[in-house]
Automatic annotation (TrEMBL):
GO molecular-function term, one example from the UniProt record: 4 iron, 4 sulfur cluster binding
Keywords per UniProt: 4Fe-4S, Cytoplasm, Iron, Iron-sulfur, Metal-binding, Oxidoreductase, Porphyrin biosynthesis, S-adenosyl-L-methionine
Lineage of the organism: Bacteria, Pseudomonadati, Pseudomonadota, Alphaproteobacteria, Rhodobacterales
Any Gene Ontology CC annotation: cytoplasm
Name of the protein described by the UniProt record: Coproporphyrinogen-III oxidase
Keyword Endoplasmic reticulum: no
Enzyme class: oxidoreductase
Chain residues that bind S-adenosyl-L-methionine 1: Y73, G130, E163, I347
Pathway(s) it belongs to: Porphyrin-containing compound metabolism; protoporphyrin-IX biosynthesis; protoporphyrinogen-IX from coproporphyrinogen-III (AdoMet route): step 1/1
Organism of this sequence: Yoonia maricola
Chief site of localization: cytoplasm
The protein's assembly and partners: Monomer.
Needed cofactors: [4Fe-4S] cluster
Gene Ontology biological-process annotations: protoporphyrinogen IX biosynthetic process
Amino acid sequence: MHHLIWRNKTDGLFWHSSVMEHIDHLRRMGLFDARVPRYTSYPPATAFCPQTEETFQVSCLKSLDPATPVSVYIHIPFCERLCWFCACRTQGTTTLKPVANYLRVVKEELALLRATLPAGVRMGQMHWGGGTPTILPPDMIRDLAQAIQDVIPPAPDFSFSVEIDPTLVDDDKIAVLADVGMTRASIGIQDFAVDVQQAIGREQSFATTLACVDSLRAAGITSLNADLVYGLPHQTPAKLANTIAKVHALDPDRIALFGYAHVPTFSKRQKLIPDDALPGEEQRYHLAQQAAVAFTSSGYQAIGIDHFGKPGDNLTIAANSGHLRRNFQGYTDDTCPTLVGIGASSISQFAQGYVQNAAATAAYVERVEAGKLPGHRGYQMTAKDRLRAAAINMLMCDFEIDLQKLDAHADARDLLPIHNAILEEFAGYVTATGQGLRITPAGRPLTRIVAQRYDSFGDIAAQYSQAS
Ligand code: SF4
């Protein structure tokens, strides 16, 4: 994602000849070649270590303070269609039989959690992702929500978001989701151009999406997020402009604009997308810029590296008050320090570190049915890891490092050699401040690359997507 012109939308810099020069500079900084984590966690999940014993997960869960609400994430690893561009961990199904079996095992995992968690732990936020949570029929939606709330009851001001596939939802499902407490819906769109949709194996009309949005609003869901993707096959500025106009007609409160990461070596379905249909690196850059200009010109505020929010949206408020954070869903206003992941491949985040449940559904089921909590990989944080994690989060959210704000970490000054190296390497794009450093608006496309300089796990970079 790119920010060169976000603060210059009135002076036409997007079309200024210096843009090409700027792109050349960014290329020299490695923007188009670097393979960089998205830093939804630090260390990235690729650095987690195998663990076969439950000890670490159990001790993290037992140590939770019931006075502090937790966030809960539940993964539904099923889709009716398997879109070719998508690298999510999910499996296709045309029947509800495997889904019902999975929910049975999730309830067993919840029983294991109930036996482990201290009494009185409550949930401040919950997110259902996948896969396709809306593959669940109304009775399963109600049953799952009830099962979770029985084990971890909602705290006051509880919020609950669900990823919605507009082609696999109806009024009945939305009514039940609203009834069990859904407060925000995240709607998958990607792009409305028919040939782009066909090239990524995901067809979804504007009429279907609009009907979904209308139904959500009629059910009282007032916070809507739209997910878009740039860099898709056959995407052009004209088609993107058309998609943006349609997104404006839907009037979402937030927009997430992700760059398509083409990594067919790791995501086999992406082999169905021919390389030569993809926009080149400069086209990708301009598509991202075009979308950013369109959204910021129409009243959205740019948030972090890839989000936009209306002025009154909670994410915008969090960004403006210094409370924006990264978690596995991307940017969040979630203030809960602990995330409890439930279901196959879900990741839990504790003060002590991370625990990821067995990723393959069969392995997850086998572990839970053996009576074990399903965490099978993880990472125990050291004080140095915490410092680096805080620095990377600050950079990804605020585009600056303020050592004073890192004072909770006694060794924050240890970062100074990294700061100095960054200031030299990214001269002109990163500037020194009294308390640390700041990425300039022109340097924001490089944010993930700058963040990687704080990452001591950089040798696994080939597994990540390109930085632009
Ligand atoms: S984009 Fe959504 S519906 Fe398509 S495969 Fe990915 S998770 Fe499933």
